[in-house]
Amino acid sequence: MPRRLSDTIRPYRDVLIFMITLLVANYFWKFTMVGDEDGDVVTWFGLDITAPFAWMSCHITRVVYWLVSLCRDTVHMVGPQTLRFDSGSGTSIIWGCSGLKQMFIWLCLILTVCGGWKHKLWFIPMGWLLCHAFNILRIWLITLAIEHHPDWFPVLHDYVFKYLFYGMMFALWVWFVEGIRGPQKGSA
User: From CA 30, how far away is CA 33, in angstroms rounded?
Assistant: First the structure.
């Protein structure tokens, strides 16, 4: 019986590792990272690690402001992390929107998949860059949408783009597993 179960699971081993790693990394992050909505203080196991989150949030705000300004002349940067439209709607890019969580999960996903370091050493930073680019695209599109439809924010932020983000990460991971790392010994 154990032999049959392992034979049954073997074709799905990488996907199971992906799902378990995604869940463990996500819950590790949720239970060890503490921050308030304003992003004034972010801690990890009691250590103040606010600086990278604050820097990234301000950077993303500046980039999104620039991108929105290309399309609209009704947006204003009213703080280092806050954009406001003439319509009255706006958004704040807080520490949780920095994309650093997804970059952490990406690192965990690639570290736990079987494969040589030669490919992981360039694929991890490439994934980080793509996560950063997707995060900016995500925030830009949400910001454009909420100028006239602020009620769309929860659906776009909490559902649509959250799952598109993880879908993009899964597609990158599949590319690594199927196209970059090469065949593994003992694979079916």
Answer: 6
